[in-house]
Amino acid sequence: MEKTRDLIVVADPDPNVQSGFQKLFGGQMEVACFSDSDSALIFLKQQPSAAIVCSCFNLPGRGGSAFLRASEIIAPMAARVMLTRERSAEAVKQALNEGHAFMFLDKPSQPADLVAAMETALAHHRQLFKDRALLERTLAGSVKLLIDMMALFHPEAFRRTGVVRKQALKLAKALGMKKTWELEMAVMLSPLGEALLPKQVLARYRAARSLTEQERDVLDKSPAQTQELLKNIPQLERVSDYLYLSARGYDGSGFPKDGPTGSDIPQISRILKLLTDLWYASPEAGPDAAAFEAVTINRRKYDPKLLELAKNVLMDDVPEERKKHVAECHIRSLRPGDILVDDALTESSHELVLSRGHTLTPTTIRRLEHFHQTTGVRQPIRVERHEVVQKAVPDPA
Predict the structure, then answer these.
(1) How far apart are CA 139 and CA 234, in angstroms?
(2) 394 falls in which pLDDT band (50, 70, 90)?
(3) Which domains does the chain have, with CATH numbers?
(4) Is the pTM of this model over 0.70?
């Protein structure tokens, strides 16, 4: 397999600078040249693993210092180099303090000086990469130990992490995500806020029971509790931001009320939102057609492309009989025409609510919902569901 070549991104409108970089480094490295800050940043978003980012001081657009600062957010492992004819102390100070430049070079630079500078910058990038990899492995082990410890005291909150992590990695592969460390950390730490919530609130939510406005508010704010716990831990700042927005609906619903909408919500947050809600809608055996129907009822809350991809990717391992014929449903995803495979029983006393073999109608489904609100009905409920949805059975009531 051919080794991937390191990438240098050059933001400078001077054609001599661009051709010089291509001539000196194009043989052994990938060189991408741009004449303004916006086009360079757009490219970096597609290539966040860039090794070196070079910029002139007076870069068209947002300026060289602001460009280097923005590139740090997109490509944090890149060494940033400022090229300029400016020799004032103020220019150097701005490049170092605002642009977080690793190196400051005068223009024009001699080829030998430029080669030496790029070699030093590349060594810095590689050291950053090694340090980050070591820190990630160490931090991942520490997080796993933390989760294992907390799971002993709050098993209900953390029992979903193993299942959701596997699903998240399958989605990441289908999406072409090359770096999954932040996604995995976000999944493992996602129940942290829930572990601090009153258990009765979680129990009612998991059983699909109605919540008071106050209880719903407490539940929705659990991501904020997680962010507060994680924001001061190095390398987990971005993970804490993803978790903070993981209850935000694609349509702008959920927490926080003034948060981003649509594709402005980070992709990892959108993945967490979908997989967490899917987990709550799924039976113990894993997601099935009924679980996806349950989340599809509120489809506006989820990234539509992500929802469709999840259906294709996560349903691959589901046996055909669970895909089409026998479904395990929560009450909210029952349909007229479904036939009960088992007796519907109460949650605590296991008293009979509706006998097996009963064909559901809109009225019987409403009765199950009302019964569940007052006494509680055991869920999920197994039903026989045909491939072609049956017409609603005439309701005698």
Answers:
(1) 9
(2) very low
(3) 7-130 (3.40.50.2300), 325-397 (3.90.105)
(4) no
